[in-house]
Amino acid sequence: MMDGGTGVARERTQAVVIGGGVVGCAVLRELAQRGIPAILVEAEPSLCEGTSKANSAIVHTGFDAKPGTIEAGMLRRAAALWPELITELGVPFLEVGAVMLAREPDDVVRLKAVAENAANLGVETQLLDAATTREQAPYLAEEVHGALSIPGESVIDPFWLTRRLAEAAMAAGAQVWTDAAVSVLRVEADGVHVGLADGRTIRADQVLNCAGLWADAVAGLAGDLSFATTPRKGQFLVSEETFGVDRIVLPLPGRMGKGMLVTPIVFGGLLLGPTAEDLQDKRDRGVDAATRQQIIDACAAMVPAVREMVPIRQFAGLRAVSSTGDYILRPSTAGDRLFHVTGIRSTGISASPAIAEHVVDEVTRLRGWERGTRRQAELGEMSFGEEAGEVVCVCRSVSVGEIRAAMRPPLPATTLDAAKRGCGTTFGDCQGNLCAVGSAVVLADGLGARPETIRKHREGSWLFLPGGGSDGTVEPVRDPDRTDAEVVVIGAGLAGIGAALATLETGHRPLVVERTARWGGAMGRVPDALTDAERAALATFGDRLAAGEMDLWLRATASGLLQDGDGWRVMVQTAHGTAAVRTPTVVLATGGYLRPREHAPIAGPRPSGVGTADLVHSALDAGLLPGRVAALLGSGRFADGTARRMQAAGMEVRRLASLPTAVRGDRRLEGVEVGGTWIEADLLVLADLQHPAPFLLRPLGLVDNRPGIPAPAEADGRLPLPGLWSAGTCRAADVDHVASLEDGRHVALAAMAGVEARA
Amino acid sequence: MSRLLEDVITVAAPRERVWQVVDDPNALQRVLPGCEELEMESPGHYRAVMSTRLPFLTLRVRGTATVTEVQRPEHMRLEISGQPLGLVGSFTVSVPVDLSATDDGGTRASYAVDLHLTGRLAQFGAPILRSAVKGQVREMVANLEHELAKPAAPPAGEASQP
Fold first, then answer.
1. Side-chain-facing half-sphere of A752: CA atoms under 13 Å
2. B90 and A562: CB-CB below 8 Å?
3. pTM: predicted TM-score of the whole model, two decimal places
4. Are strands A610-612 and A683-686 parallel, antiparallel or unpaired?
5. Among chain B residues, CA nearest to A573
6. Which residues of A274-305 are buried (b: 16+ CB within 10 A; e: fewer)?
7. Is the CB of residue A393 less than 8 Å from the CB of residue A358?
8. Tens-place pLDDT, residues A185-196
9. Are B88 and A266 inside 8 Å of each other by CB?
């Protein structure tokens, strides 16, 4: 309701939940399904922004919990609740199982003790001898003396879980308020006054403090200083390649918890870590290079192949450690109308269903609420429209349709990070440098706003400014009108253009498919850096297109290569749907992407404004400025051209002599450290190293999932499967594309000679 | 193509009955898990709409089912390929089957399942999809056993006669 005098919203409700992490959302669902009107308030612009988003994503059986603790009891109860909850919510979940390794002969005895503990807690385990362990998990280190198998350990998608818990609560009548930071909390005899930073107030009979790491600060607002919550940082690495690992691999526990794990991610790939570093600063989610190596070393001791990994991302989560060492599930010292639900250190996901049940029981008793019958509202299933639409995120083939699905009510994604958690866009190898602009445009379109209003996450984490030298308009996409072609060239960069022109010379007609809205590739964005021969080739390409001698599909992404008899079927995705083009010859000229910060050992927090020249050019192409002051790394003609293009758009450019060792800035980048000196900048642009992008070859088994693996072509461009060729930087990375045009030409000539020979 | 699984099952029906199921679009539709529509284009070639129930969503796919490599009575390969609705990508499931007669008049079927995914399907949850496809194969085997337990349908063409 609105206060007639002040215009400030005042609300009355039975229960307020503070904190939109997995525990808060589980509590909200429990309240709502028991018929208790409730509002969840979350300080951030979307749910799942704290500990819930950065963890191992394991649903833990509690096999190693300390008997007699609240935690052990909650984990045990939760194990009974999970199966039904998974069905109700429809959450990505896999019971992958775990193996705890004995790496020293003496460890076998310790494993037996763990097995006994598990048996006492009612968790099924099985001791495996060395031979059985190796048979079941051949990727493990040879010196493993045996293992304890825990088949019930599972992995889940924590973002999806948190969101679905909240949706289930909302379906049962609860409300979720985001951007709603609590600034006043007064526990009174007949209710609690909750004041939000924006002036709104809520009068509640009961407040549940599920604020995670910030629970002590929330308690402090009510004058309750009875406990503290401090962060224990866990750094993780993400690997797209799994090295065959199909279950959770963990060492015997040490002093600081479970130690480092190798964990399959429910959607594919591996998670390595976490570390355990006790901190004071609740905002310190920074990562560092030494820890990165420490994680790889610890995990490679269990799974040796991990040493060959190239992480696509390093991140840190902060577990909330309470001053009591256990969960804190009790009324506040300020009065029992405030109830604390915190100190859930590292088992929040696993225990959340039981925690919710327990604390809602407690507050129901305290308040003397009637125990109504439980009602479970029908929860709509996650669904997509009939048509996927254009591909936005090329590394992961995420389409417009999926981003729109992430924007569906009742919890529409409005920030780039929320969209990422909702559908996986920006999550792949390039870490958003190729697709952040496209994703922001789709989000803005759905919100009826300008792309520059889309933030990475909270206020201040801006991504773009208006004005980038282009009006951002793009040609409408032509409906793909062909189902066969003599040659399909994938990519219209210098290599693709060289290949297309050479194909024409041999008297054949190429079809060129290009995922962006313009041809020319990376070097086409910096035309003043081209050689005369390259400039001439681009001009000829334009002339030949205009003369109708070949076909070019723009905003057309090749999403798959299927062997089809003697030839290939190239699956091409556009706004109009999927076209399957049959062809005897495919020339892959997909180029590469610039190595992002996430692959490089750069320490510090993760603000917006850290990217590569790929991001810069796609922003400028869309009429957006990626920043005001850029710190640019790279020394070749592409980096020089990028610097000139940024300057022409009105940006200031500071050239860096070497890879920064650290960045700073909480929401937006503030500076980068090079050689011990800090350079102020609101944008870091990496343009020093290119990674090939042979993504299409991954499902064919020709390259593994590590970033930076080139297409395995012979000298003439031939790939190990007939009719398949590759040219340019997707087979030989080069940020300056010096040889691309000529390579495209030679590869196409060799490919067409092969066609002639067969004919 | 990566091999998802290999298995051998024995059914209490002669090989001819198994072939009758394969030759009858109505029976085949009942055997294919989640098969909403099945239309015969030519013998052995079908156009189908199927749905796969993943733990967190129902993936509807449009595709074709083909019975190839037919060497009666001992070998065939069932190939189902298509595209999910609303997601970028494609899939091909290939099931080579070898049939042999058992001493007691039943049929031993040894089969393998090969799976090839592209686009979003190859990225988004290969582990989940592999687990789902395994579940569907188990369901298909159960459906087949159920179908074979029924009396044989009259030969195609007479089935729709009143």
1. 22
2. yes
3. 0.92
4. parallel
5. B88
6. bbbbebeebeebbbbeebbeebbebbbbbbeb
7. no
8. 999 999 999 999
9. no
